[in-house]
Design brief:
By secondary structure, the protein is α+β, with helices and mostly antiparallel strands. It has a single domain, classed as Deoxyribonuclease I, Chain A (4-Layer Sandwich), CATH 3.60.10.10. The protein has a six-stranded mixed sheet, covered by helices on one side. The protein has a six-stranded mixed sheet with strand order 5-6-7-8-10-9, with helices on one face. Helix 1 links the parallel strand 1 and strand 2. Helix 1 packs across helix 2. It is globular, with a radius of gyration of 17 Å.
Length: 259
């Protein structure tokens, strides 16, 4: 695990603040598709360039190759290219490498957990929790990649709901990732009942995130629990981001209240 303890928060006052203070953070989710672009090229440097341009404080990645027999894989490479801390939650092996979810953070990482969301014989899935230090406070971020089958997602939604309502983990929480639901399905309904959902319709004229070069589906979502304000929502549609992966990154600038 690599962290950058010298990273400065997006605030003009770095002194201790009274209860109920606010911080502005940029969080993002991005399914990087094994760093394989729609041109068939596998290029971690291109993915890193997309991430660098959106300037996230914390970003949740899905479909990432991790360590293998001869290298640290794309997870380690992306962290090094961006100068960000990197933690991985592997779900399976792919061509000799671990494979799964990754969180990259410019903020110090205090804790990392992994929760199994696998269902029957479907591809293994997980939810990844990363607690990042925001000054003296903590933001709990959950990186999620749900399955493609309806019954699979129904199981995963119930399991995820239980995980998110662990009373030992307080607010604020941000839940984001690839939910593999292009319309309001069971997972979306269950999460929306208990969490605040960032409604892309209020912030974006174009809301579809998949496939990258000609998006027709909205699979990537951001939810939160706690006092937050959505300052800005972005879906970068540059020539690079349209080609680098089969998803587009979804970026939220949030004002978060810490108590």
């Amino acid at each position: 695990m690599v962290v950058n303890p010298d990273y400065q928060l997006r605030t003009t006052n770095h002194q201790p603040m009274p209860d109920g203070h606010w911080r502005t953070l940029r969080v993002a989710t991005y399914n990087v598709h094994r760093c394989r672009g729609l041109d068939g090229r596998t290029n971690p440097e291109r993915i890193a360039e997309v991430i660098r341009a959106i300037e996230p404080d914390v970003i949740a990645l899905q479909e990432v190759l991790g360590a293998g027999p001869n290298s640290g894989g794309h997870a380690e490479e992306l962290g090094a290219l961006l100068g960000m801390g990197c933690v991985m939650a592997a779900t399976r092996h792919l061509r000799g490498h671990t494979f799964g979810n990754v969180v990259l953070s410019r903020l110090p990482i205090r804790h990392h957990s992994q929760y199994d969301l696998s269902w029957k014989t479907c591809e293994p899935r997980c939810a990844q929790r990363v607690d990042v230090a925001v000054g003296e406070d903590t933001l709990h971020l959950y990186n999620v990649h749900l399955g493609t089958a309806f019954l699979e997602r129904r199981h995963q939604a119930g399991r995820l709901s239980t995980i998110l309502h662990d009373r030992r983990v307080g607010q604020p929480k941000v839940v984001l990732g690839d939910f593999n639901e292009w319309m309001k399905g069971l997972a979306t309904s269950m999460l929306s009942e208990r969490l605040q959902s960032i409604d892309l319709r209020k912030h974006l004229s174009r809301r579809r995130t998949y496939p990258g070069v000609f998006p027709v589906l909205h699979l990537d979502h951001i939810y939160y629990d706690g006092r937050m304000e959505v300052v800005k929502l972005e879906l970068p549609r540059t020539r690079l981001s349209l080609m680098a992966s089969d998803h587009l990154p979804l970026v939220a600038e949030l004002r978060v209240q810490f108590t």
